[in-house]
Amino acid sequence: MYKGLIDHYRSYLPIEDHETIISLCEGQTKLIRATNLEKMLPGLEIYLKFDGLNPTGSFKDRGMTMAVTKAFNANSKAVICASTGNTSASMAAYAAKAGMKSFMLIPDGKIALGKLAQAVAYGAEIVPITGNFDEGLDMVKTFCENHPVTMVNSINPFRIEGQKTAAFEICDDLEDAPDYLMIPVGNAGNITAYWRGFKEYKSFGKSTQCPALFGFQAEGAAPMVKGHKIDKPETVATAIRIGNPASWQFAEEALKESSGRVQAIDDDTILKYQCLLASTEGIFAEPASCISVAGLFHAYENKQIEMNSRVVCVLTGNGLKDSDIIMKSGFEMPSVKENFAEVQAQLLRGI
Ligand code: F0G
């Protein structure tokens, strides 16, 4: 029986036999072959790593099972994070499972409603702030220096350890690493974790190569592309509305070592590819996730990808978390029908 990613990849993770594992059976999000995208981008074998299928709907659960397990076994009573929404939802769920208190600092009005609803349901203490994610993270760091509360942002090393298992799963599914990995970049923890995972798996002889990492940031929140901090990051992809990534340096190293690159994608393009992905592949991912698909098309059009390659796009979060964005995208509800004749009239117009 599958018991979550710590149990499954135990020998690759810093976990002791006596430790109690806090798990919600995260992980094992199987690669989905993007057969319809492949028709649009001939010459490529394309797979989607839909991590929105995790228990709280995002890849954060991979890191959170490790971070909360470690905090619990260290007898920590509470966990804390700054978040654009997904980290806090995940933290709140794992803290609930562990019977621990959780605190989250969020930029007021700037996190998707579904993510906030999760935190409310799981019972986190919500601290809205006027500042953005970067300012929230600074406050959390300062608070944790003086109080016995465990920080579970991705600068917590156990987060990265848990998240590297996504790379293991990809290699297990493909029986090797892909040639390219397309990945959204916000605070840059995930790209750091993937790179560690791919390198470790290769060093253990479980794969023969590492992929080139192609990271993507939103145009209005692209510090790594611009080469400097962004004081007021803005993007419709609120999950990656970050101007000063904590793991910037690690991400730069990963990009360099993998012969990858980081590029910016504008908001309209992100939303366009969110709809394309949902309407052609049947996968509803949140905007920040879809930047990896938008990025793949961008890289293909600019001839940055060699033909006959295997590409994996990482879809980090579930579209249901941010349903507002779709409902506001120009959709109009047809008039309500009062009888069969009216129903039939509409159906016949659609045939
Ligand atoms: N995609 C989604 C859906 C995210 O929620 C995040 C980060 C990222 C991509 C970027 O990952 O930060 O490791 O580079 N969300 C964080 C949060 C910041 O608070 O939920 P990263």
Structure write-up:
- With 351 residues, the protein is α/β, with parallel strands linked by helices.
- The chain is built from 15 helices and ten strands.
- A six-stranded mixed β-sheet has the order 1-2-10-7-8-9, with helices on both faces.
- Helix 3 (60-73) runs parallel beside helix 4 (86-98), helix 3 crosses helix 7 and helix 8 crosses helix 9.
- It starts with a helix and ends with a helix.
- The mean pLDDT is 97.
- Ligand F0G binds next to helix 4, helix 9 and helix 13.
Condensed summary:
The chain is an alpha/beta fold and 351 residues long. The chain has helices at 5-8, 35-40, 60-73, 86-98, 113-122, 133-146, 157-163, 165-174, 189-203, 223-226, 248-257, 267-281, 287-301, 323-327, 340-350; strands at 32-33, 44-50, 78-82, 101-107, 125-129, 150-151, 180-184, 212-218, 261-265, 309-315.
Keywords:
351 residues, four-stranded parallel β-sheet, globular, alpha/beta, binds ligand F0G, 15 helices, six-stranded mixed β-sheet
Question: How is the topology of this model organized?
Answer:
Blueprint: H1 5-8, E1 32-33, H2 35-40, E2 44-50, H3 60-73, E3 78-82, H4 86-98, E4 101-107, H5 113-122, E5 125-129, H6 133-146, E6 150-151, H7 157-163, H8 165-174, E7 180-184, H9 189-203, E8 212-218, H10 223-226, H11 248-257, E9 261-265, H12 267-281, H13 287-301, E10 309-315, H14 323-327, H15 340-350
Parallel strand pairs: 2-10, 3-4, 3-6, 4-5, 7-8, 7-10, 8-9
Antiparallel strand pairs: 1-2
Bound molecules: ligand F0G.
Ligand F0G binds next to helix 4, helix 9 and helix 13.
